[in-house]
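Researcher: Can you fold this with calcium ion in place?
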Amino acid sequence: MTTIKTLPGLLLMALVALLLAACGAEQSADSGAAAEKGKTYKWKLVMTWPKNYPGVGTGPEDFAKQVERMSAGRLKIHVYGAGELVPALEVFDAVSQGTAEMGHAAPYYWKGKIPSAPFFSSVPFGMNATEMNAWLHNGGGMEMWREAYEPFNLIPFAAGNTGVQMAGWFNREINSVDDFKGLKMRIPGIGGEVIHHIGGQSINIPGGELYTSMQTGVIDALEWVSPYNDIAFGFHQVAKYYYYPGWQEPGPTLELMINKQAYESLPDDLQAIVEVAARALNQSMLDEYTARNASSLRDLVEKHGVEVKPLPKAVLADLKKISHQVLEEIAASDPMAGKVYASQKAFMAQTMSYQAITEEAYAEARRP
Ligand code: CA
């Protein structure tokens, strides 16, 4: 009798003990995850733009605020303008080495390290903002970008776009490509290489130094962004003509690059917050540029008397021909650049046919 009573009693006790042990293990795993979730991360974000500069500079500040809100303060990001922690053109190395966890920049600044980098930003006569976003997020572009940055310990995200830029500020009229000969122009990326091929001198100078460089004759011409940013730097005070369209940068994607170890140290939910906030920044910056460029162009013309001029068709045709030659050369010189260029060419062939009968046909029909 006692044995019969005791056996189930012992079994019950053993079961209870097992359950308690299992619960204990679960509790300890839970409290581990809870500890990770309760952990606060303080990160640095370095930019290639001045602090609080309209659009490109304020966008990452808004991104940092959104991430802090969404994470309930668990991921705090301090944003540094160019030169505050590292100089503008050292942002890539700073994030790669972990001096800062994040950077905001334009991928074409790094073409000396990664020949394929400009393709992730903008190349002459390449894709516009809509097409770039489509290619990056639905055409295999993002995967190639990750592959290109992987050896540098960086994870890139698309994080902003200015839309089609302007061809730039000049003090001499451009009537043929020969007018670029001997010209010292601030123009980075592959556009700069095209100018070099024509016989001009291309220089990359950070935005904050451009006004003085133009004023003191270090450069004869410059391209920066578009009316919203150009009016903020006051280029209309040092140059006479404002040319369009921005053949050199038809839809530059800006980047948020993250140090690989730093990103991997984040719990999954914080990684998701960063990813979604970057995607939001990518769109919101484009929206801001679309609205502000239009109002700033009106101010440049009506308040400051700026002469806005189109590049002649023949000049654009020549620039296009040389751009394609330069792009083919870059594609042939580096396997990754070759792969990315081939992907973009195939994607663009499709989108151009479709855009022709939608956006372009509609723009034509709407014109007064
Ligand atoms: Ca530019």
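Model: Folded with calcium ion in place. Residues 40-161+251-290 form a domain with the D-Maltodextrin-Binding Protein; domain 2 fold (CATH 3.40.190.170).
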